[in-house]
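If it is no trouble, can you show me the amino acids of a protein and the tokens describing how it folds?
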Amino acid sequence: MKRNLFTILLILTVLTSSGQHLVKGKVIDENSQPVVSASIVLQQKSDKSILQTSITDSTGLFLINAKQALQRELIISAIGFESTSIDLSDALNQDTALLIRLTNEGKQLKQVSIYSKAPLIERKTDRILFNVENSLSAIGGDGVDALSKAPGVRVNDEGVNIVGKNNVKIMVNDRLLQLSGVDLINYVKSIPSANIKRIEIITNPSARYEADGNSGLINIVLKKNLSQGFNGLINTGVVLSSRYLVGLTGVFNYNLDKLHISINLTGVYSESSLNATTEFSTPKNLWERQSTSLMKWKGMRGDVRVDYDLSEKTTVGVKYMQGVRDYKIDLHENGRFYTQTGRRLDSTLLNIGKDKLEYTLRNVEIYLDHKIDTSGKKIEFASNYFRYGMDDDNRFQSSSYNDQHELLNSYKPVGLSENEYIDIFTNKLDLTLPYKFANLELGAKLSTIKSKNNLMYEKTFSIGTLNNNVFDYSENTQSLYASADKEFSKWSVKLGLRLETTQTRGNSSVQTEAAKNNYFELFPTFYLQRTLNENNILSFTYGRRINRPDYSLLNPARLYSAINVYEEGNPYLEPSFSNNFELNYNYKDWLSTSVYSNFVSNGFSSLDFFDTENNIQSQVIRNYANSVAIGLSETITFNKVSWWENNNQFNIYLNRSKSNGAIAEGTLKQLSGYVSTNNTFTLNAKKTLMANATFWYQFPEVYNRLISEAYYAADLSFRAMVMDRKLTLVVNVSDVFKTSQQKYKGIVNGVNQFSTQYNDNRKARITILYRFGNGKGNKAARNTDDSETSRVKQGI
């Protein structure tokens, strides 16, 4: 029986190289005999320009070494047969194998289908791709499960980091999330891993992205699915440690023709404890400070997004987010002062405090995406308003005792109130323009920031009233960027330049004049990649970045937490700059090697100082050092058996920090490292029962001017899926052996410092997730691309 042309997938197991993919195929006739000397032409659909040609050999085989781009097609023709074309726009994301059957002249084609599967890990010109949909983590897991397996990524309750770096920002579909800490983790947990297509690790962001942040970006790319109807999930669970946390999340999606709606609601209640110890030692005395904090907090956050397709080329949308979180903190602190001679107790200072905080967040974004033509040209516009508020009511009382524990002085109770409000307005325009000579990206951004902080002490606290303060801060930034990338033969090159000019002004009631800072900076980026062969890829990247201080760090007011302890901002704080270099090598889809270096000038951080004469501890922000980090990172992934996926990370790096005179000490060096193994096992043939075992070890490393001791942890989890995978039960135990306690030591201005901190890291989690509706994701979510909001110290 004669049949029309059809295409099926034969083999695709070769690692994809960035921008360079093989199209392999065989052309046969209706009797399954090879068609000899058939003409194969790869052309651009827009202008029909010919890019490559080939002919079939005596066995009907052909091979084309194609470049990834939009709107390309393959034309197949032979004497005596009907010519046909195959759209390769999607297929060229990876190597593709085709079996093509031609019909005799006069017969019409019926259908062409192309099936392909990307490797687990891919190296692109400016990023590493972790294709979650091909990982066991996509089965019944969430976004955190997927992130923890991405090359070079570390995930814990405090946030997400790239090994050997910090200040990493998280995006969803190229738009920055405006959350941090536990809220960021909860948000990522609300994304089912089955809805994630891939995770992109961008250690050297291109000119298209904000220049702020020294350590790169992680972009979570969601699957695009416009299935009609209603679907969603309900996720609830409890975390048990010395205290507990309970939470409930609901995600609801609805698609109706051109209308797309998504709603995300989250509520959390938590109690947690923190134990910390700090020591300050000098030749004259020793101060031991032990504190225990009990924190109770509750919060809610919700966002709604509405998209409407005006046409096949144009989409408009609006997104609204609001959140609130309330904290109640009970603090008990015991400070002991010793003489160094004989280590004799001199006196004791007891501090008891209660703190009430409320954080609020509101965000509104409107956006428009328009495809200019079918060649891939498009324009994107977004306008955003972000409002953040913090109200703090803090009360504490301090009492001092002699070595016989007899009362020396009961200081008057201290009451203080602080509120801070930050308003951020941004407008952003991006153009994508693919041309034959190069692919261009152009854009501009305007941002306006206004911050106001009021700090008031009750009159009973004489020292504090001298620091009553109203601090107004404004910052305006104008940005332009352009980048171009080109692929030729086995090379890929990308160049970019971002221009940013910034004007800042800070007015404080405790200063005689305003603190101003105006600066103009250029941020170049460069990427070069060489595909040695289908299994080996070598690349080099460079980028210059800026790290701007959080707004709260600029406030010069003294915020007291005890009679002799305060923190103080710095209105003259300047941004730091970094130059980042990376040399990367990828072998197939299981080995990724990176040699990197990071040079930071004018670095700033919060440093602890101790006044030995008056026994006063102060925490001050300063531009204090220039630093260098050089490292080697290895990721090895094994997923060749159906029941086991193994991901291993190894990182060794050297940190060198040299003081610029702001502190007495000169150069600090520390060789450090990090190793981890993450193992996921399927326990049955249907892959509805899964287990995971993870172990990681952090060697001593530099944190500000202190050095941490080594710490490590082992985590275990079990996952079960029932009801056709709609209901998932997860049981997880983290830090099984309670070994992740962090200890720091170092010298700042001649004072030896030692501190420990344990934050209830050993926890048992029980999570229940239920999916309902058509079981498919909504249109890919959008998130605001505003790095300015990430500089807000959010408690939401």
Notes: Residues 181-189 form the longest helix (9 residues). Residues 369 and 772 are 30 Å apart (CA to CA).
